[in-house]
Amino acid sequence: MTPLYATLVGIAMGFFIQRVRASSPGMIVRNLRLENLSVIKFMALTMAVGMILVYGLSLVVPSLLHWDIKPTYVLGVLLGGLVFGVGFGVGGYCPGTSVVGIGEGRKDAMVAVAGGLVGALVFTVVYSVVIAPIVQVMDFGKITLADVTHQSPIVVALVVGALFLVVIKLLPTEVKQTT
Question: How many Cα atoms occupy the beta-carbon half-sphere of 39 within 13 Å?
């Protein structure tokens, strides 16, 4: 991916993140409480379109993309997801939305980015002693959904993308809370 292409994709993502108000901690909290699903629907749409485009591009221009499948460390992913989720819930930002928040001048977004950098530093320092043994538990290697289902990657991308699009269409944006 050329730097220009990456910059254009980043600008587009930042625009849409700001457009659905995903850079607002209040909106993030409403999504985490399942009161407003706009950010969840936006992320699902981003994944669906991205999956289909990336696998479609790989068919047209195979040398354009560099596939670097990360190993599937189940316990490591679960623990990392827990840490990420707690930080997301407490801070009201994920890495992408915090950068957009900084662009909007939000001081709490600056704190969230600083916390993420501190977390990355701690992760790096303790990796060999704490993290490395954890990631070896339930290590399934570099597998993909296409490997598991024995289907073509583009077929899997089209099916999963279509399922995401159906779910997006069926889910309401605002959810009425009952008391």
Answer: 23
